[in-house]
Amino acid sequence: MLQASGRNANISDYLSATSTEFEGAFHELIKDEVVKIIRSEKTWSVGSVLEEDQVKTLIGNIFRWLLAGELEDSLAALEKLNSPSQICGRVFKPGEPTYSCRDCAMDPTCVLCHTCFWKSEHSKHRYRMNASGGGGCCDCGDSEAWHNFPACSNHKSDANDSESEEKELNLPNDIQSKAPYFFEAILKYVVEHITETKTNLTDLPSSLRPTIDNKSFSTVLFNDESHTFDFVIHVLRDALKCTESEAADFATVVDREGRSIICIGDEGKCENAKRIVTSRPTSLLLFRTSDPLKTVVMHITNLAHQELAVQLLPALSDMVMRSEGLREIFCSVAMSQNISRQSENNVQYSSAIELLMRCDHELWKTPRNHYLQVIMNSILLNADAKKSFAVLFTKLYGAIQDGFLKGDHDHSQSVAVLSVQLYTVPSISRYLIERENVIGRILHSLTKTFYVEPDAGLDPDWCRAIKIDRKKMRHTIRRMAYTFHDLRYIFAVIPTDWTPALKSEFLNGLKYVLQLLLSIHGLDQTVRRTDAHIEHEPDWETTITLMMRIHPIIKRSLKWISSDTGLLFDALHFCLMCLKNLQDSENAGIQKISHGGQQYQCIDYDICLRAVSSHYPIPRLIVAILVELSNKGFDWQEIKSNPSLAGLMEHPLFGIQLQEYCLRSLSLNAQVVSGMWKRNGLSLVNQIVFYKDYRCRQEAYERDIQMMQFCASVVDPDHFLVNLQYKMNFLNHGCSQDQYAKLTCEVFTILIAAVGERYIPGVSDVTETACIERKIIHILAVETKPRSKIMKVLPENITDQVDLEPILRKVADFREPANANSIGKYSLKADVLNEFCPYAYQYSFADEDKAQQTIIKRKSSQNSPTFFIPPKLPKFSKLFCKTPFILCSDTFISLMSGFLQKVVAGDNEMCHDKIVRRGLYLIAMAVVESKHHMQNETSKFDFLAKCISGCEASILFLLQKLETMEAHATHKDFVAWMIAEIESMTNLKRGAREHGSSVDHPSYPKTEVKAESSGQNARKQRAQELRSKLLLQMKTMQQNFLSQNPDLLGEDLPTAEETVSIPQATQNRTCMDAAAQEQAANQPEESHTCMLCQEDSASSDGAMVMAAFVQRSSVLRRGTYVERQEFNHPFLHMSFPTGIHTSTCSHAMHYECFKQFRKSSSDSRLFRHRHHRGYSEPPNSEFVCPLCSRLSNTVIPFMCRSIVHQKRSRSQDDQDKNITDMEVADDESLTLNEWLKHVCSAEEQFFDSSSVVMPDDEKESGSYDPEEFMSVDGSPTSSNQSADKSENLRDSFDEFIYDILKESSLDLQNNNMLSRQSALWLSAVTTLSCTENALRLENRSVLSKLQVRQSAALEGVLGTMYALKNTHAQNDDTFEKLFNDDTFEKLFNCIDGDASLPALLNCNVFSVFCYIWFSADEKKDGAGLTDVISFERKILRLCSLAQLVQIFVRMKVADLELTCDNVGSSSAVENLVVNCNSVRLIAGLNQLSDNVSRVGFSKLVKTCMLPFLRCCTLFLRHLTGVAPCVDVADEAVDEFACVMKYLDLPENLSSILDFDDGLQVVRRWLSHPNLQPSLLSGDILSYPNLSRIPDLVPLPPNYGELVGAAAAFKCPKFASDDSLHPTMCLVCGDVLCSQSYCCQQTHPDKDEKRLVGACTYHAMTCGAGRGLFLRVRECTVVLLDKHYRGTFITAPYLDGHGETDKGLRRGDPLYLDNSRLCALRKMWLTHGIPERVCYDTELKNIRYMLDWAHL
Predict the structure, then answer these.
(1) Per-residue pLDDT at 411 exceeds 80
(2) H or E element that contains 859
(3) 1347 Cβ contact partners less than 8 Å away, ≥ 6 residues apart
(4) C-alpha angle 861/865/869, rounded to 5°?
(5) What's the pLDDT at 1068?
(6) If we measure between CA atoms, which residue out of 1123, 1110, 1104 comes closest to residue 1179?
(7) ∠ at Cα 1003 (1002, 1005), nearest 5°?
(8) Closest by CA position to 1509, among listed 1447, 1439, 1454, 1574
(9) How far apart (Å, rounded) are the C-alpha atoms in residues 1353 and 1324?
C-alpha cells in the first residue's frame, strides 16, 4: 500500500520513472526508507530484527513499478497467461518424499514428487522412496530422465501441440519492455550488497547514502562449523549479559540463518560486544579450534541494505516461478555480463549468476539458500538457460570446489549441489564432454587439492605418476567425496551413438582418470619389519577411503568403454602404456628359478625385502578391460594382433609382467595371514581386511584373481605355478613351519579361486542373473538373513539393474516374522545346497567356517554326505579356456603329491584340517575337471594319467593310504569318493564296462551312509528307552511317597465323583457370598522365599516385600492435556487427567536384604558413571530386581488376605463396644432413596457424636497396634514374636506410600494420612483400570487366570490400602483427622445430588466406587449397618446405576445403528430403551428415534457398561479372594452375563434403573447445575469413546504420506525455517522440532532448573514424563523415560520383506504393520516404556549415546 504524507511524492516520482531512469529512481526510493525496516534498539529481540510490515510494504512499492499494481494480484493475473506446463520442476524441501522408478529411470537421481508419482504409471512398477535432502526438483515431464512414461497425467504433453523454436512471451507489452531494466537493477543491487562487506556509510555509493543522519550500529555474529553450540552460548551469555535461554536462541539463529544480530546501539556498545565475543574465554571448555568467532560491527544503514537485498531474493524467486514470461526475461538478464567489477588493471564484466557463484563460499546461509532457490525456479526450468548455466558452472567448477573445500558449509547449502541437476541430463553431459572437457575439469579440480604439484595438468607425458601430498588429502578427503559423485553423474547414462568428438574427448578424460590411478599406484607401501615392531601406526584410512570413492568411477568408466569395441582397445593401449612406464621406473631384473628339472624366468622382486602395497589399480583396470573383451568374444590371438596394441605385448615374459603387481598383492595378503608381517602393526592388517571386504573386494581382490585366471590361460601352466610359489616365498622356506603351512593353505585358496570362480561375465559364459544367484547362495549359506543384509553385500544399486525377487524365490524360502519384534528372513533351499563352494573368495575366515558348519548340519538332516563335492561350473570363455590346465601340470602334480606325502607322514603343521580340506578339495576339482573333459572327449587334460603314475608318490596311492589312516577319519568319505571317481574314470578310459557316477550325482560308499543312519536310529532308540525308564521310576517314587504320607493331603480326600461335583455345587457362588469369602480367607497363605538370602518366609522373622515400579500415568487421559490443577480429592473427572500406576515382578525378598542390596547398587552406580559429567543420572531410588533385572523404584509389603477379611468382618460385639445410641436398620428393607438418606444422616450422627470412637487405651496411645494387622500369616502377633518383623513391615509400608506420593505430586510437604489415602486410592484405581484395558487388548476375560505380575500388583496395592487405616499415626490430631475425615460424607452427598459438590455424572464412576468402598469401611458399623455384605451390595448397585445413567446421557445418538424392523425384540431390550428415553427426557436431551435398532442399542449399552463391570470384578476378586468358577476362555461364553453373575447384579440392565425408587436419585443427579455444560464437551467425552481402549494416534498406511506431511512442518519458534528432525508424538499426534536448541524450554519441575528439548518437555506434559515419539525422517521410534534416558526402537512401518528402513536408505516402500503397531500400543498401555528403556540402556550400552534431555 502507498505510504501517506511526504513519501507519496517520492513514490510518485519512482513510479513515473522511465526504463532508463529506473535504477536511479530505485536508489532514491530506498535510501531513506530502507533503514525503517530495522527495529530500534528498544524494540528488537533475538530472531526478530526486521519490521515485517515495513519490509512487505517497501518490496511491494519496488515491484509496483514493473507490475503497476499490488504484488499478489498482479502475479495472479500473470499466472493465468502461462501456457500449460509440461515439466513439474517442484523444488523439494528437506525431508520431502521422493520416488524413483527402478524400471524406467535413467539413473537413481531421476525422481518424482509425491503428487506426480501417484498419478503416473511408475506407481505400478518397482520403485524406491527416499527422503530428499533439499534442493532437488521433480523430473516429471523431462523425457531425458525416463526410459518410459516421462510424465504423469498432470504434465502429459498434447500430441497435437508442436513446440516452436522461439516462444512468444505471454506478457503485457509494458511489462515486457520494463522487465529487463527492472531485473538488471535489482540484481546489481542484490549482488553488490550480499557479495561485498560494507560496514560504514562511506562504503555505500553516493546514490544510496541517506539524507538523515543515524548513529546506530549493530554487531553481527557469523556462523562457522568449528565452534560448538555450547561454546557460542557460553560466550554470548557473558558478552550480552543475557540468560542461557536467550543465548541459546541467538546461537540457534546463527546456526539456521548463518548470522545473527546480537547487539544494536551506539558504536562503542557494539565494539565492546565484539571485543568480548572474539576474546577466548578463560573457562574450561572443549575447543575444536583456536580461531575466534567471526564478528562484524556494521552501520545500521548498511545492515538494512543487506537485509533488503536478502528479502528481495525470495520475492524474485516467487515472481519468476509464477510467470513464464518473466522467467524467460530474468534468465536472459541473469546470465548476461552486465555487472562491472574493477580488477587490478582493467574493468571486467560478469553476469550476476557468475558473481554469486564465485562468492558462494563467502555468503552466509540465508542469501546462499535464497539465490539457489532463484536459480532452481528460473534457470533450471528453462532448457536454453539451463544449458548455458551448465557451461558456466563447468567453467567455474574449479573455483566452486576450491571455495567448498576451504569453507565449512554443508554441500546441500552450496552452489556445488546443482551439479546433480546438470550432469545427470544426458544431452547436457555429452555436450559438456565434447565442448568443455568436463571430465578433465572435474578431475583437475580434484587432484590439484592433493597433488604435490597443484598446477600439474595433462601434458604429453600424461602417463607419469604425480606424487600425492598425503597431508592435504587427509584433510580434504571427506569433502572431496562430492566431486567423485559429480564424475558418477557424468558417467551415469551410457551413450548409444558415439560421435568422433565425443569419443576423442572421452579418451582425453580417460587419461586424467589414468593419471589419478597412476598417482595412487603403490600408495601406502610398506617394507617387512624383521627387527622391531613399528613405533607409530601409519595412516591407512585415507587411501582406503580414496579407493572406495574411485571404484564406482572405474566401474562406470568401464561401462562406457565396453559400449564400443574401439574404445576397449584404445583404453587397453593407454593402460599398457602406463604399466610399461611403471615397470620401467622400477627397473626390476629377471631371476631364473629351477624347479622339476626346468628353469623358469621370474621378475626379481622379493616382497619380503622390498616395498609392497595392496593398491595397484592400473593392472586391475587392464584385466577388467580384458574381461570385457572376452565378453565380446575375443580370444588371445585376436587381442594380440590388434594394431593399436602393437609393440606392447611382444615381450616373451608379458604374461609374467602383467600379473606381477596383482601377484604381489595376493602374496602380501597370504603372508600377512600366515603371520609373517606381525611387526608391521595393525595398519597393514586393516588394509588387508579391506582388500577382501565387500566394499573394496570387487575392484581389488577379485580383479587380482581374474588376473591369475587370465595369466594361467596365456602362460605355460608350470611357469605360472612356479612364479606363484616364488612370489609367495613358498620355494625359499624362509619362514617357520607354522607360517609355511599357512602359506600352503593360501596357495591352495588362490588355486581354488583361479579355477573355480567362473561366475563373471567374460570369464565364462554366464549371465548377470546367474552371477547374482550364486552370490546369494553363498550369502545365505552362512546363515538365514533378512533382505537388507543380502543387499548390503551385493553390488551397489543392483536392484536398479536386476529384479532380485525371482532370484530370491528360486534359491531361498522366505520366513515371515515370527512376532512383532522379529524380521522376515530368507533361508537357502535344500535343492541348491550342492551348488555351494566352501572356499568362495567372498568369504572371510569366520564366514567360511560358519557357512561350512551350516551346510554340513543341513546335509546331515537330509541324510546326505557331509563332505563337499565341487559343484558343476560353467565353461570358461575362449580367452580363459586354458586356465583349468594348471590342474594337470607337472608342477601341480608335484605340489599335491608332496603335500599328501607330508600329510600321510604325519606332519603336524600340514595335518591341520583347514589345509587338508583345501588340498583335497583342489584334487577333487581336478577330478571333476577330468570327468568334464572325458565327457567332451578332449584328451589334452591328462590329470588321470599323472595322478596314477609314480608308484608310491602317486596321488592315487597316497589317497588310498590316507583313507586307511585313523588320524584323518573325518576325511575318509571324501577321499573314498575321489578314489572311486578316479578308478571309475580310469576303467572307462581303458574300455571297461563299469560306469562311474556323474558329477551331478556323485557316488560314495552307500554302506557307510546306511551304517551311519542305522547308528543314529539306534542311539535315538536307546535314548527313548532310557527316558521312559526314568519317567517310570519317578512315577513309582511319587506313589510310594503318597502312600507313606497320606496326612499331607488331608484326612478327607474327595473321591472322583466328589471332585467332579464341586464346580457344579459352586456354580451359583458370587463375590458377595459370605461363605465364599470366608472360604477364600481361610485358604493357607503362600510361602515366599527371599531371592537374596534364599530363606523361606515361614522360617524367618523379617518382613517380606516385592520389588515394584511406581510411575505417574496419563494413559487413561481422554482429550488434550489440561494444565495440572490442585488435586480435587476424592472426585476424579471422567477424562482421567492423571493417575499413578504400580507394577511389580512379584519376586520376594526380606526388607532388610533389600536395603543392603539397594545400598550396594547405589555405591556401584556412583563409580560406574563418575566420568560422564554431562550425563543425567537416574534417581537413586531406582534399582533393578536382583532376579529378573526388571526396573523398580520401590517395594510393596506382602499383605495377607486374612487381614482384609478380618477388617471387613469385625464382630458385632466390637461394634457394640464402640458405637452406642444409634438405630440399627435392616439394609434390605430400605429402598435406594431411603437407604441413601439413612446413610447420610447416620454419617452426620457419627461425626457429631461425642461417644468414644476408640477404646480408651488405644486413644491414649494415639494409635492402633499395627502388629494386629500386619502379621504375615494374618493372625495377631504374640508377645514372644520378634518386634523387628513388624518394624520392617512398617518401614516398607511407609516407603511404598512415600514413593507413590512422589509420583502423584499431591502433598509432599504434609505427608499426612489424607495424602496417603488419596495417593493409594488413585494408584489402585489407575492400576485396576490399566490392567482391565490390557486384558481387553489381549481379548482376555477378567474371570480368567491373570499373570502373576498383574495379580501381585493388584493384591499389593489393595492390601496396602486396607492396611493404611491401621498404621501408626504421627499424633492424635492426625489420627483424628483421618478417622473424622468428612470425605465419606462428601461422597454420599455427591451421590445424593449436592449442588455444592462436583456432579457425579462428570466423575469417573469406578473411582467413586473404590473410594466409597475404602472410606466406608470405618463407618459401616457406626451407621448401624450390621450386614457388611448387604452394605457393599448396595454400593455396587448404586455405582452401577450411576454408570448406566452416565452412558445414557453421554451416548452419541446420531451414530446409533438404524433399522426398519424392530419386531421381535425382547421385553428387556424394550425396557432398556424406555429407561434410556426417560433419563434423557429428564436431562433435557433428544430421545432415541423409533428406527433405532433395539438389539444394536442393547449391545452398545452392554459394551459401554462392560469396562466398568470388569474393573469392579478385578477389584472384588483380589479384595475378597473369591475366584470365579466359570471358565470364560471359550469364545462362546457370554462374558457380560458371567461378570454380572459374579458381581451378583441382575443381568437385565433395565432392572438396575428400576431398582426400588432409583429414578428419584437419578433426577437429583441430572439436575446438578454443572452437568449440562459438560454434556456439550464433544465426542471425546461421550460413549462409546469413553469405553474404548485408549489408543495411539492413527497412522497412514503408506509411510510416504507421513514423510510428506512432516516435510511441511516448520519450526514453531522460527517459522521461516524447516525443522531438521520433525518428530511426532504417537500419543497425541503433535509434531515437534526435536533435537534442536531453538525449541528448548525450561523443565516444568521446579527442582529441575535446566533447558530440555521439545520432546522431553512434551513428554513431561503429555505423557507424565514418558514419551513415545516417531522420528519421521529417520523412520525410528524414540522412547523417553523422563529427561535422563531413552532408547531407539524400530518403527511400525515395514517393507514387503518384513523389515523397516531406518533413514530410508534402501528406498523400499514402507507400509504400516499392524502387529508392530499393536506391540507399541501394548507397551504404552501397560506402562512398559521405562522397563524397555532400562533394558536397552543396559544391554545395548546406549546410556551415553546422546543427551536425552536435549531430544
Answers:
(1) yes
(2) helix 845-861
(3) none
(4) 130
(5) 53
(6) 1110
(7) 140
(8) 1439
(9) 9
Name the packing angle between helices 1405-1415 and 1383-1391 (round to 10°): 140
Instruction: Kindly give, in sequence order, each residue whose CB lies less than 8 Å from that of residue 467, ignoring residues fewer than 6 positions away.
Output: 451, 452, 453, 519
Cα 250 to chain centroid, rounded? 31
Over residues 338-370, the pLDDT tens digits come to 887 766 666 678 889 999 999 998 899 889 989
Coil vs helix vs strand at 1278: coil
Q: Which helix (H) or strand (E) holds 1641?
A: strand 1641-1642
For residue 221, list its beta bridge partners: 260, 295
Cis amide leading into 1130 (omega within 30) = yes
The torsion region of residue 1694 among left (phi > 0), alpha (psi -120 to 50) and beta comes to beta
Helix axes 617-631, 500-520, angle to 10 degrees: 140
591, β-bridge pairs = 602
Q: Which of 445, 525, 540, 438 is nearest to 490 (CA)?
A: 438
Q: Nine-digit cell at 447?
A: 587432484
More confident call, 295 vs 450: 295
Pairing of strands 127-131, 217-222: unpaired
Q: Which residue has the higher pLDDT, 311 or 936?
A: 311
Q: Write down the pTM of the prediction.
A: 0.83
Which helix (H) or strand (E) covers residue 1104, if one does?
strand 1104-1113
Q: What is the DSSP letter of 151?
A: S
- Report the alpha-carbon distance of residue 100 to residue 1706 in Å, rounded: 12
Cα 558 to Cα 571: distance, rounded to the nearest angstrom: 9
SS3 127: strand
Instruction: Say if strands 1676-1681 and 337-342 run parallel, antiparallel, or are unpaired.
Output: unpaired
State how far the Cα of 1607 lies from the Cα of 1629, in Å rounded to an integer: 15
129 — phi, psi (to 5°)? -125, 130
Which of the pair, 1074 or 744, is modelled with greater confidence? 744
C-alpha cell at 1467: 421385553
Grid coordinates of 1269: 494387622
- 518: cell is 597412476
C-alpha cell at 1582: 461421550
- Cβ atoms within 10 Å of 1075's Cβ, excluding its own: 10
Q: Is the peptide bond before 870 cis (omega within 30 degrees of 0)?
A: no
Q: Could you tell me which residues come within 8 angstroms of residue 1486 by beta carbon, excluding any fewer than 6 positions away?
A: 1453, 1480
Q: What is the pLDDT of residue 1284?
A: 57
* Burial (Cβ within 10 Å: 0-12, 13-18, ≥19) of residue 950: middle
* Amino acid in the structure at residue 348: Q
| Locus of grid cell 524494540 | 43
Distances in Å between the Cα of 337 and the Cα atoms of 20, 247, 349, 1047 are 18, 44, 5, 111
1681 - beta bridge partners?
A: 1666, 1685
Cell of 18: 522511465
Phi and psi at 369, nearest 5°, equal -65, -35
Count of residues for the chain? 1751
C-alpha cell at position 1178: 537416574
Identify whether the C-beta of residue 1405 lies closer than 8 Å to the C-beta of residue 1439: yes
Average pLDDT over residues 1387-1397: 65
Residue 259, strand partner residues: 222
* DSSP label at residue 1487: P
- Helix, strand, coil percent values for the chain (each to nearest 5): 55, 10, 35
Whose CA is closest to 1272, among 1256, 1255, 1288? 1288
Alpha helices by DSSP H, listed for 156-266, are: 173-195, 229-240, 244-257
Rounded distance, CA 879 to CA 1607, Å? Answer: 55
State the CB neighbour count (10 A cutoff) for residue 282.
6
Q: Give residue-wise pLDDT tens across range 1176-1186.
A: 556 667 888 88
